[in-house]
Amino acid sequence: MRYLTFALGKGRLAKKTMELFAQIGITCEEMQDAQTRKLIFVNEELKLKFFLAKAPDVPTYVEYGAADIGVVGKDTILEEGRRMYEVLDLGYGKCKMCVCGPESARELLKHQELIRVATKYPHIAKDYFYNQKHQTVEIIKLNGSIELAPIVGLSEVIVDIVETGSTLKENGLKVLEEVCPLSARMVVNQVSMKMENERIGKIMSRLKEVL
Ligand code: PRP
Fold first, then answer.
1. CATH topology identical between 4-93+183-210 and 95-181
2. Which of 76, 87, 114, 146 qualifies as a FRET site for 196, CA 20 to 30 Å off?
3. What is the pLDDT of residue 37?
């Protein structure tokens, strides 16, 4: 039997994912060691492999078939636009993609002004402003701490993930518009879905039972 390979987005989601998988008997002892610098983990008995990758790389591994299955946030799926099947909403990692800024920016959004939008998600931001709102904006790509941008005057608004809202609150910013809801999703390589239909189907149906 060939190995079935899972790519998991590093960080908060990976831990939750392994907790969920444990509920359906999919475990990986090697992965429990928090100190390890190992990149790939094996469950020989079940013929499974797991690896952790930067979230935006997970869809890449899955599209090319280097991983059969991936677990990653809907934000990353939308942003990366890779060819693969999105098969399950895993229900955790719930948050929202929002347009945020100071209260004073609300007017700028209403009047279709040419504003600057800072974001880690340029494709999502472009799609929202150009295709949904029909507003021309300048999109500025950042790599983190996006909330800084309107505070220091880099942009009028941001497009970013809001979970509890406390980062916004502590920085005097507000949700001005909601773009879409987000959560962790399971994605599958298109060829693996056919070649490993039985094993992947079984995993999916067991996950559906516990979700
Ligand atoms: C995310 C997001 C917000 C924050 C939202 O950032 O970009 O900054 O979490 O969470 P909250 O609504 O619960 O405050 P993350 O911690 O991933 O870091 P980054 O901005 O540097 O990417």
1. yes
2. 76
3. 87
Model confidence pLDDT, tens digit, residues 103-156: 999 999 998 889 999 999 999 999 999 999 999 999 999 999 999 999 999 999
Answer yes or no: are the C-beta atoms of 93 and 9 closer than 8 Å.
Answer: no
Compute, in angstroms, the gap from residue 71 CA to the centroid of ligand 1.
19
**CATH superfamily of domain region 4-93+183-210:** Periplasmic binding protein-like II (3.40.190.10)
Q: Which atom of ligand 1 is nearest to the CA of 143?
A: 22
CATH code, 95-181: 3.40.190.10
Q: How far is the CA of 64 from the centre of ligand 1 (A)?
A: 29
Nearest atom within ligand 1 for CA of residue 163? 12
Q: Measure CA 15 to chain center.
A: 14
For 145, the token pair is 């701490």
What distance in angstroms lies between residue 162's CA and the mean position of ligand 1's atoms? Answer: 7
Atom of ligand 1 nearest to the CA of 168: 14
* Residue 111: count of CB within 10 angstroms of its CB: 8
Boundaries of every domain in the chain? 4-93+183-210, 95-181
Q: How far apart are CA 188 and CA 194, in angstroms?
A: 10
The residue nearest atom 21 of ligand 1, judged by CA position, is 144
Pocket of ligand 1 (CB under 6 A): 144-147, 160-167
Ligand 1: centre distance to CA 167 (Å): 7
Checking if the pLDDT of 54 tops 90, the result is yes
